[in-house]
Amino acid sequence: MTRPSDLLLLRDKLRAFAEARDWDQFHSPKNLSMALMVEVAELMEHFQWTTEAQSGNLAPENKAEVAEELADVLLYLVRLSDKLEVDLLEAALLKLKKNAVKYPAEIVRGSSKKYNEY
């Protein structure tokens, strides 16, 4: 018996959530991508003016707020991929394969250079 992926379950919950509120009419790819960027900006605010060390060691209350922002980003991303009929998990796995070719571990280990700089 196959089990739907967690992303598919989340997608279905988001569809039902939007349908119950008659929000599908507002969920165009344009609007969803803009909402996604707003949420990413809200996530970034939590790290603005922090040091590298501080950004990796959040206080519990800040971590809870960051978790909410991450959830918002994920929700909009899943909803956008649904509207565009993109299998998000498949797309992510394909991109990971492409990045493995673009950034071979034996060449780029420990380097932050972009693929066209080595």
Q: What is the terminal separation in angstroms?
A: 46 Å
CATH topology of the largest domain: Helix Hairpins
Q: Which sequence of SSEs, written as H and E, runs from N to C?
A: HHHHHH
Number of domains: 2
Which segments are poorly predicted (pLDDT under 50) over 5 or more consecutive residues? none
Helical coverage, percent range: 55-70%
The fourth-level CATH homologous superfamily of the largest domain is MazG-like
* Average pLDDT score: 95
Could you tell me the number of beta strands? 0
% residues in beta strands: under 5%
CATH class of the largest domain: Mainly Alpha
Molecular shape: globular
Gyration radius over CA: 18 Å
Structural class: mainly alpha
CATH architecture of the largest domain: Orthogonal Bundle
How many separate helices? 6
Largest sheet, strands/sense/barrel: none
